[in-house]
Specification:
The radius of gyration is 17 Å and the shape is elongated. It has one domain (about 5-130). About 15% of the residues lie in helices and about 35% in strands. Strands 1, 2, 3, 4, 5 and 6 form a six-stranded antiparallel β-sheet that branches. The protein has three helices and six strands. The two termini are about 30 Å apart.
């Protein structure tokens, strides 16, 4: 049973769980460069594959600016590598876009914590927003 099958069996797939692949990180597992490889690979993920919109706290819409990742914790569990990461990104408060809308379009800094579960065999990974 691979990670996708296990998640489906546990009922842990749905709109808040996205599947991605972290092949370079899996190949670097156990090596000194793992943390940096993982950070770089996470930062190359298309932002739409991450639950950034759901993680907004101060704004209402995620901007298309690049985000930054910070690795908080990594541990190995049965058949997977579990990564807790902080994501720094920006959002805006979207107004009505009317000519007389007084709402300035200022970017606000946002932060959320996500968990990546990386399958040790396939490098398939799910990302889940954590309530932290």
């Amino acid at each position: 049973m691979d990670l996708r099958d296990a998640l489906e069996a546990a009922g842990n797939t749905g709109p808040d769980t996205k599947m991605i692949r972290l092949t370079r990180s899996l190949n670097a597992w156990g090596k000194p460069e793992f943390g940096e490889v993982l950070k770089q690979e996470i930062e190359r993920i298309d932002a739409s594959a991450l639950p950034l919109q759901q993680g907004l706290a101060r704004s209402s819409y995620v901007t298309d600016r690049p985000f930054q990742a910070m690795i908080i914790a990594v541990r190995e569990e049965a058949g997977l590598i579990r990564v807790k990461a902080g994501i720094f990104y920006t959002g805006i408060i979207a107004g009505c876009s009317c000519a007389d809308d007084p709402t300035p379009i200022d970017e606000l800094n946002e932060y959320c914590v996500v968990r990546f579960d990386v399958d040790r065999t396939t490098a398939d990974a799910t990302v889940t927003l954590l309530a932290e």
